[in-house]
Amino acid sequence: MIFLKLRTTYHQRVCAEIIRVQPGDKSGYPNFADKSNKASKEIARHIILQMDCTPKTGHLAGQTAGKRFEEITRDYLKQTFARLHHIRPGKWQYSTGQSIANFEQYEHLAFLDSLVATQKELASALGKEHIIKPDIIIARFPVSDDEINAAGPVVTDISLSSHTPLRATNNSLPILHASISCKWTLRNDRSQNTRSEALSLIRHRKGHTPHIVAVTAEPLPTRIAALALGTGDIDCVYHFALYELENAIRDIGNEDQLDMLQTLIDGRRLRDISDLPFDLAI
Which CATH superfamily is domain 65-148+164-280 in? Predict the structure, then answer.
């Protein structure tokens, strides 16, 4: 019941702070639809009807919509993941726009970045693609020995377990637990950008690979497929309203979009936003 309420609140915030009805057709269309695609507009309209959403009219800049989507999704994950503390305990950090160099697995990139900044030859050879700033970051702080020994002596000799970053005696930096890419819509090369960031996270890490996922409000499964299909980079894509999306596609009777949606769901490549807190607890 709590997760249902938090999901509803999430949708209410998205509706109030991001969704706008754009002029066009007879009744306009939501700003997460493609104005040049009839199916996109119909699906988006049916989604907001199910969300009991009465959006404002007018224009909202794409960058503003994207930034608000990141912040609202971050807040939702903070509230829901906290409810699973008994399953996945720890002290957690939730942020937007942070460089991965601030975290234990990627701190070596800060040194590399300083070299690139001072030597033009390295800058032209290496670029700066390795220093990325994911839309949302979830990180875990290292644990003190007092916490480790809370239920009885586990670590008492500093000469043992002296390299693991989970112990605060060995490491002062938070450990990157999840990198979450937020895409209000999926147009042009946005899916490729997300994949490139994912591969950078995998290739440049020293240690544990964080969860690497994407969240979107894109109404067309055929466009979501460009990001979701395939494996090896992104763990999974999460839709901000998957159940409403499925109902919307059934309502308008678009078999092609429904077939692709089922392919993504059955292939475990697309899930609802309410699944993400549980998957982060794995």
Answer: Type-2 restriction enzyme NgoMIV (3.40.50.10010)
